[in-house]
Fold this sequence. Notes:
By secondary structure, the protein is an all-alpha fold. Helices cover 86% and strands 0% of the residues.
Amino acid sequence: xxxxxxxxxxxxxxxxxxxxxxxxxxxxxxxxxxxxxxxxxxxxxxxxxxxxxxxxxxxxxxxxxxxxxxxxxxxxxxxxxxxxxxxxxxxxxxxxxxxxxxxxxxxxxxxxxxxxxxxxxxxxxxxxxxxxxxxxxxxxxxxxxxxxxxxxxxxxxxxxxxxxxxxxxxxxxxxxxxxxxxxxxxxxxxxxxxxxxxxxxxxxxxxxxxxxxxxxxxxxxxxxxxxxxxxxxxxxxxxxxxxxxxxxxxxxxxxxxxxxxxxxxxxxxxxxxxxxxxxxxxxxx
Length: 285
């Protein structure tokens, strides 16, 4: 028996056309859902071309503005000798520890302030006053008190991430529907059940807003702490590059900081989309 594609060439062409339409439709849907990711290669290419063109036009020396190729070369050199990975790991450890401490305290205190109006009135003025002092001014004191090791950087990071998450937690807990809370109490729900089944799911959309800001500030806090006093980390690389006029090293460190911040932000975004699937279904419904 002969192949159907030979007997019916028009049918085969129609099937191929349908497949290509479905494929192009899927690509179009992905671009519509992720416009920033779709535009990234073009934006990056345009930025590199402008960068290269500016250096060639003004004939800048490397210590003023290096070419993109020099930065790539420096990145490969630092990756090969292990220095880039080592300093990046130090900064990541500071960020992770600072987030763990700062977010834990913010969630616990924010929950109790959200539940208790009296406690909020007592502590809020002091919490707001603590945020009026710039972290850059506190960081040198922390380095003096706790040394230039890991602890001072972790404390600076924890201070940076604390307030945004605290505020979002308070707002999220206060936005819980009081009628639903009374309904669960009438059904004899315990404190744990009330928190897990009602308060946490209702507050999560607001909490994630503060959490996204906190993870970005965590990177800033770690770098600020390393600026003040450190002998390793990405902030230390920037200080070192500035001291020896190694501008490509500064660019490498800055690019790694940007990648870290982006990775953490998108990780929180993915976690949000996973935990709040019910909300998306609710909106579509």
